[in-house]
TrEMBL record:
This is ATP phosphoribosyltransferase regulatory subunit. Residues 9-195, 219-345 form the Class II Histidinyl-tRNA synthetase (HisRS)-like catalytic core domain. One of its GO terms (molecular function) is glycosyltransferase activity. One of its GO terms (biological process) is histidyl-tRNA aminoacylation. It comes from Sulfitobacter sediminilitoris. Pfam families: tRNA-synt_His (PF13393).
Length: 359
């Protein structure tokens, strides 16, 4: 295991690479206001982060990553275009996998530039790939925007689309909802009784919901039950979309085929093609670069387009050495009406040192 000083030295070297590209060094505080992250991700974030309370500042969170505070900083007073880099500890609960570190060093590079999004995507990916030269990793890319476009193009209710969009990052729940909305799954007896008005209980109310909120939820369930099912053909197309896992040229060929029957994904697929050209112009071997439509769906929920990762070859038990992606919508949410296309990536210098020592 590398020492803290060795990891810090590696982090400084990586950060210097990004500084050489014109990136400004930023150092967001370790303690972050919990409210912003809870607003973005809901209570789910509590299971992944360390939360504490301050009498004056309210709930605070040990920094789970750098992207959100960097976006907040940029949207408040950043110039345009802008590039940032940073190095510091992040903190994540690892209750599902106690073998993984809950505190580790992270180095990142963020680009805010509306000139050429495809070129910015390629810039971030290629620079991180170059920094990983000599480490045995496998690169994988994806694009969350394709699935988002497919959901938005469904002929169904706004409520159903909103639910599917909310659970894009929870693959099992997403698939279960899709099956339910298509009428492919059986209605549980308890829900059937509830919808039929046959569910009765004299038990007192427990929890924070009022009777009015419960009644509104029941009405929403009834409205959903009366809605027309999503067509079987459309569900099959989405499932075929999620199964795309090919080298980038072959994946694009398959995506273009699917776009014939799903024209709503055409613009997102065109962005993938533009990105491939930009990556090739940066010297990336796109003919062997893996593309998975489903990649990134269990990561932090601010990505809404290009996503990528560098996985350790033959070690699925290890976390990815580097990850990143595009988060345009996050800048709008944190920008009080302003927005700017943005993409970034992060690396784990400690893991890099471990892998380099093992080779």
């Amino acid at each position: 295991m590398p020492t803290r000083s060795e990891t810090n030295e590696k982090a400084a070297t990586l950060r210097a690479l990004f500084e050489a590209q014109g990136a400004a060094v930023v150092e967001p505080p370790i303690l972050q206001p919990a409210g912003t992250l809870l607003d973005l991700y809901g209570e789910d974030i509590r299971a992944r982060a360390y939360v504490t309370s301050d009498a004056l500042r309210g709930e605070q969170m040990l920094r789970p990553d750098f992207t959100v505070p960097v976006v907040q900083m940029h949207m408040a007073h950043g110039a345009e275009p802008a590039r940032y880099t940073y190095a510091g500890e992040v903190f994540r609960r690892q209750e599902q996998d106690p073998e993984r570190a809950n505190e580790y060093m992270q180095v990142g590079y963020e680009v805010f530039d509306r000139t050429d999004p495809a070129a910015a995507d390629a810039e971030v990916f290629a620079l991180i790939g170059e920094a990983l030269a000599g480490v045995r990793v496998e690169a994988v890319t994806g694009d969350i925007g394709i699935l988002m476009a497919a959901v938005q193009g469904l002929e169904t209710t706004a409520a159903r689309k909103a639910a599917l969009m909310r659970h894009i990052w929870r693959p099992r729940r997403f698939r279960a909802l899709l099956e339910r909305y298509a009428g492919r799954s059986e209605v549980p007896p308890t829900r059937a009784a509830l919808l039929a008005g046959q569910a009765k209980s004299d038990a007192p109310l427990i929890g924070m919901r009022s009777e009015a909120e419960i009644a509104a939820r029941i009405e929403a369930l009834r409205a959903d039950a009366e809605a027309e099912p999503i067509s079987a053909q459309r569900v099959d197309l989405i499932e075929a979309l999620l199964e795309v896992r090919e080298t980038m040229p072959n994946a694009l060929s398959r995506l273009h085929d699917l776009a014939v029957d799903m024209p709503e994904i055409g613009t997102a697929v065109a962005r993938v093609a533009e990105r491939e050209a930009a990556l090739a112009a940066r010297g990336v071997a796109t003919e062997s670069l893996l593309f998975e439509t489903s990649y990134g769906r269990t990561s932090m929920e601010y990505y809404d387009g290009f996503v990528f990762g560098f996985r350790v070859e033959g070690r699925p038990d290890l976390p990815e050495v580097a990850t990143g992606g595009r988060y345009d919508a996050l800048t709008l949410r944190l920008g009080d009406g302003a927005e700017i296309p943005a993409v970034g990536g992060v690396m784990r210098p400690g893991l890099m040192l471990e892998l380099e020592a093992a080779q």
